[in-house]
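quick one before i forget lol
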Amino acid sequence: MKVVNISILWFFLTLLFFNCSRKLSDEPKIDCINESLIDSQALCYEIYAPVCGCNGETYSNDCKALNNGILRYEEGECS
């Protein structure tokens, strides 16, 4: 049981510290939302680390933004 718990912990730590963020400044100005990437059934971690999507909407973390089809975002809440 401890092996499973450690594996789950490692997975979430990896997501937190080694994620590949897509920044607004890193990509050319192209479409903001790719509807083929929208996945309402996707599971995301529930850690509040807000990101501002290119559509001007704040998402609670990068996972939620990506699963809403957002192609570019910046860390932090939208103003």
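fyi Residues 25-29 have pLDDT under 50 and may be disordered.
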